[in-house]
């Protein structure tokens, strides 16, 4: 295995375009010893997924087309735990449903055998950074062990930059109107309908209507759940 030299994982330069940030992420991933990266937000809205990746195209195409993300044990692990996990260990620990087995077979058929999944978090929501290693298992585990903390920091840097400046690239966005978004912000602050009506200069009945629409769109049972779903989906 070729030697991989450490280098400073500094912040991204200001005023970069998304294309520049994406290119920088791919370059830094390669410099850290990995062949590819797959970054996505973990959202409660599971009808679709948004991701940034330079994984083999056939993998990404099938992953999205067959909605494997609905049954992905890697995403399930990273939504509940803070510790990184290899794809192999994740699939091994899963119940191995038909869909998860097909997903595992897909990754192997595309030459993606060794991946490290790192949970990431910001105030926009949770996500996962998957790092793909092209090589043997021994070299993969050696690289992960030797640069464990470094890789976690790098992954958080990637996710933090994207989550802050390009959340629409990671999270499915709920289609809230401007007034619904404004009302949601007041709900987050714990304000009552009366307080919201005064701040929005609308009637209490209008606030009730807005709250009802927000709960329906977020598929939430109550205000507390709506706030949690909005936060996890990057809608806030």
TrEMBL record:
- Taken from the record, one Pfam family name reads Autoind_bind
- Which keywords does UniProt give here? DNA-binding, Transcription, Transcription regulation
Question: SUPFAM superfamilies, alphabetically?
Answer: C-terminal effector domain of the bipartite response regulators (SSF46894), Pheromone-binding domain of LuxR-like quorum-sensing transcription factors (SSF75516)
Q: Which InterPro entries match?
A: Sig_transdc_resp-reg_C-effctor, TF_LuxR_autoind-bd_dom, TF_LuxR_autoind-bd_dom_sf, Tscrpt_reg_LuxR_C, WH-like_DNA-bd_sf
Name-wise, this protein is Autoinducer binding domain-containing protein
Q: Where is the HTH luxR-type domain?
A: 169-234
Q: Which Gene3D superfamilies match?
A: Transcription factor LuxR-like, autoinducer-binding domain (3.30.450.80), Winged helix-like DNA-binding domain superfamily/Winged helix DNA-binding domain (1.10.10.10)
